[in-house]
Amino acid sequence: MRVCVLVPTLDTFRGGNHLPLFASVPDTQFTIVTSRMKPRDAVLPANINVIELPGRSGPYYYGSADFLFASRVLGRYPAHDPFWKDFDVIHINQCLGLPFTRLTDSSVPILSLIHHPASVDRRIAIRESHGLGRLQWSARYASLVFMQKKLTQKFPHIATVSRASAEDIARDYEIPPEKISIIPNGIDGSLFASAVDETPEFDAIAIGSFVHPRKGFPYMLETYRKLAEKGCRIADVGRRTEEQLHALKKIAGVKVYGSVPHEVLTMVLRKSSVLLSTALYEGFGLTLIEALAMGRPAFAFEGGGVREVLDPIDPSLVVASRRSDLLVDRVMQFLALPDVERRSKGSQYRTRVLDLYGIEKSASALKNVYEKIIHKP
Q1: pLDDT tens track of the chain, all 377 residues?
Q2: Alpha-carbon distance 326 to 320, whole Å?
């Protein structure tokens, strides 16, 4: 099978559809067309080829980045170009480039993967903001939601990462639920090896960009403060605004790492006892299963697909959204357990998450969807 993946930025280890996932479908040859690959020196698996198109794409909000990327791809390879005939599937990966609708003229089956609907981001951003901020977020998302709705209605095959996300996409964009396939995120147990027997340096860690209101930074800040008051050591990893950094520096016991390479992220995660997530919505929550694969509990607010992912592993990992007090209680209860019990729980988490979300299962689901749309009349 030959698949062309179109993605504005290829983050080789993150974002759900990444190199380890594609490498786990060894009998499929992937050609990835992107504007940027990071890190640039990543070693490509044997079944992956990358075509990097030069040029800047512009800002994400208002849809200009994805629109320009799609225009650039079609400028080099128009819909009737023989380039597309080399593939069995065109996989548009988390891109809202409306010009890609022209690819329906190529006669090659198209799969559009959406992590979660932009309409959810807009709702949460408006709810979590005040005054002028609400108007600004509404304006930022107007074109994104418009384009995503048009794409989901135009393309016959949509995929996402959880049932919760599928339900939101179907409702918000008025498309038949049977049009949507689910490809859960997967975890590579060798990349996220067990850290159960290691002595943690930090009591808690939070990972990811908290710039968008959906990630719940005010609730994370409140959680940090309460944990710090109890003497906890905290690692903070990911992109932060200057205002957020200023607030973090006021909390004793928080070590701010900022954006770090994949190997540093995994190293700090190994050194932490628990993972925290205050996201008000996650389509799936890839970081959650990364922590669990290392034998570290992942305590998270319940929005989106989080409960769907964590309940089969341990329902106590799920906390009511916006309840920082409950999140702190769950963390402290775990930290108070004897070391032997914490290690036992960690081993159980790793076993269970690899059984449910091993990367081989994600790869199998991806391949099954490809085969379904290829053979669909």
Answers
A1: 999 999 988 877 665 557 888 999 999 999 999 988 877 777 888 999 999 998 766 666 667 889 999 999 999 999 999 999 999 999 999 999 999 999 999 999 999 999 999 999 999 999 999 999 999 999 989 999 999 999 999 999 999 999 999 999 999 999 999 999 999 999 999 889 999 999 999 999 999 888 899 999 999 999 999 999 999 999 999 999 999 999 999 999 999 999 888 889 999 999 999 999 999 999 999 999 999 999 999 999 999 999 999 999 999 999 999 999 999 999 999 999 999 999 999 999 999 999 999 999 999 999 999 999 998 76
A2: 8
Topology of the domain comprising 2-186+359-375: Rossmann fold (3.40.50)
Residue ranges of the chain assigned to CATH 3.40.50.2000: 2-186+359-375, 202-357
C-alpha pair distances (Å), 292 with each of 255, 295, 351: 22, 5, 9
Checking DSSP bridges between strand 29-34 and strand 2-6, what pairing results, if any? parallel
* pTM metric for this prediction: 0.93
Which top CATH class is 202-357? alpha beta
Candidates 171, 197, 220, 205; CA nearest to 290 is: 205
